[in-house]
Amino acid sequence: MSKKSKPSNRPANTNLLEGLVIQSFGRRFRVETADGIFGCVTRGKKTDVACGDKVLIQKTALDEGVIEEILPRASLLYRQDEWRSKTIAANVSQILIVTAGVPSCHEAMLNRCILAAEVNHLPVTILVNKMDLSESQAVFESLSSFQALGYNVVPISAKQDVSPILALLKGHTSVLVGQSGMGKSTLVNALIPEAAARTGEISEALDSGKHTTTFATLYHLDEESQLIDSPGMQEFGLHHIDSRDIAGMFPEFRPYLGECRFHNCWHKVEPGCAIEAANADGKISDSRLAFYRLLIAERNIK
Ligand SMILES: Nc1nc2c(ncn2[C@@H]2O[C@H](COP(=O)(O)OP(=O)(O)OP(=O)(O)O)[C@@H](O)[C@H]2O)c(=O)[nH]1
Ligand SMILES: [Zn+2]
What we know:
Elements: E1 16-25, E2 28-33, E3 36-42, E4 54-61, E5 64-70, E6 76-79, E7 86-90, E8 94-100, H1 107-119, E9 124-129, H2 134-142, H3 144-148, E10 152-155, H4 166-169, E11 173-178, H5 184-191, H6 195-205, E12 215-222, E13 225-229, H7 274-280, H8 286-298
Parallel strand pairs: 3-5, 8-9, 8-11, 9-10, 11-13
Antiparallel strand pairs: 1-2, 1-4, 1-12, 2-3, 4-5, 6-7, 12-13
């Protein structure tokens, strides 16, 4: 054995194949490998495999296998659930939030998605869709405050032309998220013509059509660009984030953190709070501070 080889706690098994999870539906996965695509399950009760994960599989039949190991992840996004967060997409390199003027755009949703991106240190682009409508033009203008925080805001009209975002997708594994009705499906179908058909097939296989089971698909746009879509995904889960880490995920809070009178300040109503003072000076907006306080209140921090 050469001195250079790394010790491994995995039994040496020449049958293990490395692959990429290109689809997850409930507890079943499709894994793309150099030997083709395998339908896979996980070992035991392990279910935290996500679309975009790099994995090692053990072949069990010609086109079937078992996921034995998840390789280290560069990023991990969770799906919002009433009770808990469930992994949905791994190794994503940027987040695209789809919004529009119709139906009305909820700023809290934008803020939640941005927070999920900050946790993973991922760049965010807010796509303002339906720019052929005046309502969307107004939303685009109102989002200049997000642009000022360093988030990219891009106007599009998915129904007319998606080419303005092709350059944005290049070289990335992107994930799309958005409130219902903003045009996420229109966008995905324009970018990936086969997507509509594949989504339909899975809905039929799951015998629901209502997406009650979480599923996600990774599409190859070209050799270096991928898009992960999870139909119906409106928000990312934030349950797993430590309450103490939240303030640091607001870029405009960062210059003031550590400046409060109390080192354990929650920036709620404490005297000598530097975040509160920055808000009074107009350096932190009322809406972002209110959003931060809402997150803290949700966690029953007194
Ligand atoms: N005017 C206009 N309408 C659009 C545009 N893009 C999408 N729409 C319309 O907006 C509506 C919602 O679009 P979908 O693509 O179904 O929206 P979605 O975000 O996938 O919604 P869910 O399926 O509920 O998650 C449809 O009637 C689309 O035709 C656009 O660029 N301009
Ligand atoms: Zn404070």
